[in-house]
Amino acid sequence: MSIHIAAAPGQIAPRVLLPGDPLRARWIADTFLENAQCYTEVRGMLGFTGTYRGEQISVQGTGMGQPSASIYVNELINEYHVQQLVRVGSCGALTERLKVRDVVIAKAAATDSSMNALRFQGYHYPATADFHLLRAAVEAAEAADAPHLVTTVFSSDSFYHSRPELTQNIVGYGVDAVEMEAAEIYTLAAKAGRQALAICTVSDHLVTGEETTSQEREQTFGEMVTIALDAMLATPPA
Ligand code: HPA
Predict the structure, then answer these.
(1) Across the chain, what does the average pLDDT equal?
(2) What is the pLDDT at residue 29?
(3) pLDDT tier at 211, thresholds 50, 70, 90
(4) Ligand 1 centroid, distance to 1 Cα (angstroms)
(5) Under a CB-based contact definition with an 8 Å cutoff, are residues 170 and 154 in contact?
(6) Which of 85, 117, 189, 231 could form a disulfide with 137 if both were Cys (CB 3.0 to 4.6 A apart)?
(7) In ligand 1, which atom is closest to the CA atom of 156?
(8) Strand, coil or helix: 104
């Protein structure tokens, strides 16, 4: 049992989906997994293990932002020996290369976070996805005919920005979407030699102002979860 996850050894699968919202974790378990059992409710941050096409899969809520996601990913990696971590979340579109409901497959994550600033002290680390999971997710999105973009995301520490011009600056360097967790998940996985990927659906558009209804969000979220599950099953753990 770890500090923030009340699971016994062996209760968490080597492959874990990571939604930010714990209620999304329950929805994924109810909708996609067979025989799902809840293994933690600590702080309301739900986690479940079940099977998908006969393979053990867990789904663990992470909360919002890199500090919160970091707690769960550290414990999943170091105490539960998880091999594959795939974030399934939402993001805001920063350019017109994206429309709401599109699926963003994050090949890399830029960040304004102090987490990597402190870790690397003046060196700039490229937080990148696992190539095999990335390739498998692209193939799954193509097979599902789901509109998707493979791009760099901006993992921001702020949802409400005090200096939006800084975000505009980074958009000029091939960054198309903003979310709040991928950079830390990629960095922790790389350090431990594990595989990580972030897939997000566009829930709001910061250029056009377009938004999704909750029903649309649920449908696109489901498509993204299927892409994530298929990508994990197609990728042998490293
Ligand atoms: N900013 C950060 N994270 C997000 C956003 C956003 O606008 N939309 C969905 N996740």
Answers:
(1) 96
(2) 98
(3) confident
(4) 32
(5) yes
(6) 231
(7) 2
(8) strand
- H-helix or E-strand spanning residue 175: strand 175-179
Taking the C-alpha atoms of residue 208 and residue 117, their distance in angstroms, rounded to an integer, is 32
Whole-angstrom CA distances from 199 to 40, 103, 153, 163 are 24, 7, 10, 26
204 is catalytic: yes
Measure 79 CA to ligand 1 centroid, in angstroms. Answer: 30
**Residues lining ligand 1, CB < 6 A?**
90-92, 156, 159, 178-180, 203-204, 206
CA separation, residue 54 to residues 19, 124, 126, 140 (Å): 21, 41, 35, 18
Query: 56-73, pLDDT tens digit by residue?
Result: 999 999 999 999 999 999
Place of tokens 């029903």: 215
The total of other beta-carbon atoms located within 10 Å of residue 118's CB is 8
Question: Which residues, 6+ apart, have CB-to-CB distance to 131 below 8 Å?
Answer: none
Token digits for 80?
Answer: 């539960």
CA distance linking residue 195 with residue 214, whole number of Å: 31
Q: For residue range 76-110, what is the model confidence (pLDDT) as tens digits?
A: 999 999 999 999 999 999 999 999 999 999 999 99
Spatial distance between the Cα atoms of 225 and 137, rounded to a whole number of angstroms: 10
* Mean pLDDT across 184-192: 98
Rounded to the nearest whole angstrom, what is the distance from the C-alpha of residue 160 to the centroid of ligand 1? 9
User: Average pLDDT of 190-198?
Assistant: 98
Atom of ligand 1 nearest to the CA of 179: 3
**Best residue among 21, 66, 91, 161 to mutate for probing ligand 1, ranked by most atoms within 8 Å of CB:** 91
Nearest to residue 63, comparing CAs of 75, 49, 52? 75
